# Entry
Amino acid sequence: MEATMEKVNLKEFISRAGDKPAVTTLYVNDCIRVKAIALKKGTELPEHKTAVRTFLTVITGKIRFILSDETIELEEGDWFNIPIQRRHSVEALTDAVFTLTQNLKDHG
# Structure
């Protein structure tokens, strides 16, 4: 897949969120996938787990990353390595937009 010239303002992506998260794939090839997720304050990305190495970057706002035994608050500019195969959820403490960068060649 060849990259194209396309401008995306991630801070404006929050306008797509409502009662449920707004999710879009920004880029994908055979090695990586980059998704943007927008959450309105008080909404949640339900509990799930990832099978591939995934890095979360907060673009705007503040979120709570919830593991079964730990809670981490992340805010604009924070970068976080999501643990592979651990159940987690994300709660928006403010309107928030973050990206997930996934290494599709690495399966834990």
Summary: The chain is about 0% helix and 50% strand. Residues 52 and 106 are 6 Å apart (CA to CA). The mean pLDDT is 92.
